[in-house]
Amino acid sequence: MQTYIALLRAINVGGNSKIAMADLKAMLVDLGVDAPQTLLQTGNVVFQTAKSTCDKLEAKLEQALAERFELTTDVFVRTAEEWRHAIAANPFAKEAANDPSHLLIMPLKKAPTKQQVEDLQTAIHGREFVAAVGRELFIVYPDGIGRSKLTNKLIETRLAARGTGRNWNTALKLEQLAESVSG
Fold first, then answer.
1. For the residues of 125-159, what is the DSSP string, one character each?
2. What per-residue confidence (pLDDT) applies to 85?
3. Reduced to 3 DSSP states, what percent helix, strand and coil does the chain have, rounded to the nearest 5?
4. Of 13, 62, 64, 79, which has the fewest Cβ atoms less than 10 A away?
5. Contact (CB, 8 A) for 8 and 43
6. How high is the pLDDT of residue 15?
7. Max Cα separation, the chain?
8. Domain ranges of the chain
9. How far apart are CA 35 and CA 48, in angstroms?
10. pLDDT score at 16
11. What pLDDT does 33 receive?
């Protein structure tokens, strides 16, 4: 059995794409996964299943969400080990320690090129800054996300990849939950 973390994009945010976490867990059980556990109400799930590729699990979960809930959304899956490596690779350790709620990790569908990250950096007009490590983008919003011009749309356009963000506190809680599920 392998432990996975799945992040659903834009679930229960701003009254859109509502899904109860109990219903999400029930769907996962029906799909045959073991020990599904949710974190918060925004589509964070940790579960175990037979080894598979993250791409296959993403497609399977996206299809199940569409069929069961008529919900079209992206799902981002990482193994627990990949998530641990991403946490360890955080290039903004100071920000993680001092202001974790303004640091985001954004799993992406594909790794951006160096040029794409440079293009994104040149498009930033505020105090935000970014760095990519593999398929994860790390973003610091020193003044908060709410009024920032560094939006998901801008990020995804410049990187040519879909993504979903989680603040650093949530990222660490997901790591801990994955460890507890793994036993």
1. -SS-EEEEETTEEEEE-TT-STT-S--HHHHHHHH
2. 97
3. 40, 25, 35
4. 13
5. yes
6. 63
7. 46
8. 2-83+172-182, 85-168
9. 6
10. 66
11. 94
Strand 166-167 and strand 103-107: the pairing is antiparallel
C-alpha to C-alpha distance for 123 and 39, rounded to whole angstroms: 33
Q: Does the domain at residues 2-83+172-182 carry the CATH identifier 3.40.50.10420? A: no
DSSP helix/strand/coil, 123:
helix
Q: Are 2-83+172-182 and 85-168 equal in CATH topology?
A: yes
pLDDT at 12: 62
Q: What is the pLDDT of residue 97?
A: 96
Domain formed by 85-168, architecture: 2-Layer Sandwich (3.30)
Low-confidence ranges of the chain (pLDDT < 70): 12-16
Q: Which two tokens stand for residue 10?
A: 């834009």
Q: What separation, in Å, do the N-terminal and C-terminal C-alpha atoms of the chain show?
A: 11
